Amino acid sequence: MKKAETMDPGDLISHLNAINIGDLDLIREKLLQASQACSEIEQPDLADKLDEAVEALDRLDLKTYRRRVETVVSKLGHIR
Question: CA-based diameter of the chain, in Å?
Fold first, then answer.
């Protein structure tokens, strides 16, 4: 995985909202990039939520996956 570019909360929201359907490996990579970016902006709790989203995706638990991503997007909106 390449190093994620530094993203601010607005960039992260756009990045996460752009994840739609597609190859699971690509979705996983985008989530991991967003998780790394959250760590870089000192939001470890949000990074953990995105890691949980990856785990849910791996289990094909789409309800939890969507909930975790939506939670992160919502919290990023508050710190933007």
Answer: 31
Name, in order, each residue with C-beta under 8 angstroms of 54's C-beta and a sequence gap of 6 or more.
Answer: 28, 31, 32, 35
Q: What is the pLDDT of residues 58-69, one digit of tens each?
A: 999 999 999 999
The residue written with tokens 């000192």 in the block is 42
Task: Give the model confidence (pLDDT) of 26-48 as tens digits.
Answer: 999 999 999 999 999 999 999 99
The letter for the amino acid at 57 is L
Number of other residues whose CB lies within 10 A of the CB of residue 27: 18
Angle at 40 between CA 15 and CA 69, to 5 degrees: 40
* Domain boundaries along the sequence of the chain: 27-79
